[in-house]
Amino acid sequence: MDKKTSGLETINELFATRLPILIWVSMVYVGTVILQFLHEPLILQSCVFTGLFTVHVLLHWNLYRVTAKQYWLYFSIQGVLIYLCAILMPGGYQVVLIGLLPVLIAQSLGFSFRIKRILFVSVISLVIFFDSALTIHDTGELIVFLPLFTLMLIIVIAYGMLFFRQVQERLRIQSFLHELQEAHQKVEELTLSNERQRMARDLHDTLAQGVAGLIMQLEAADAHMTQGNGERAQGIVRQSMQQARRTLAEARRAIDDLRLKSASDLDFKEAVAEEVRHFGEATGIAVDVRLKLNRRLSRLVMEHSLHIVKEGFTNIARHARASRVQLVLTDGNGSLQIEMTDNGRGFNPADIGKDAGHYGLLGIQERARLMGGDMTVSSTGKGTAMTVTIPLDESEKP
After folding, report:
1. For 289-301, how does the pLDDT look when each residue is reduced to its tens digit (9 = 90+)?
2. pTM of the predicted model, to two decimals?
């Protein structure tokens, strides 16, 4: 049932697109027959003419099956049919030539718009026109109908050129739309990739860092309890409870995407001092802090910088086995510099982002890049030095 419906739709489409030409060739046929019968009734020749004309129309109907390589064969057959139809009806040959040859030229435009091809087809059509007139020995009317035929050729070629340009513009627009769709798809893919990286970074900087801090504090409490220092262990447990609440609040803010706290709500120096205090209490590692901040930092720079400091402390506590850490923050020369140095065991900086489960430094690198900055890491067996440089806007002045 679907195939029948599809076949009927195809036939309807073909009929709709070829209807104007069918009407035109029908008028040519009727006009030729009437003129011939007014001049001299030729029954047998009219029957042969009808058969050849029918073949011509059928070939035109199946033009969509003809490929570019087969066009010259198609053109030759149609040219012969038009020539035979003209000489079979000497009383109405003018209608055949003027009515069918321009249509054949128009069909050539549909295959390929090349000036040489159009000129060649036009010349062949003129040859058919002259040869038909000379065969019928009707040179008297040739002078009258030749200008009319030439005018028809000019009109057809001009129309074909206009139609071809419209088709080319349509194809170019379709190409632009296709390229636009591909670009839009790439933008969507890039946006999705960036969003996944952002979500991974936010989860790491909230849940992962918070849980890591809780583990360090609980380990410290366990060590104090083992040593019989219950009061100190209880104090650390209370701090762990506060840290858990703070981690939960940060996770909720990340999930709700409500990290829109204004700069006035955040004291950067106090926030850095709070991170240093938590780190020292949880690990017992001495921290030397030097803050040389004279500019007013934007909310975005402060939030990213705090996450960088927090992640730096977390990496040192988990991997460095250091006994001393130095943190220096300066805002000179139009940029904010965050320098963290430890005296731990060091590592190979080339392994950043390669080890599964170790994405802290990779997250720091991404945050620096998001703000137009960069991160450098140097490490030996005697310690590690990390420097993050973040450019500051002119609006961020003292």
Report:
1. 999 988 888 888 8
2. 0.40
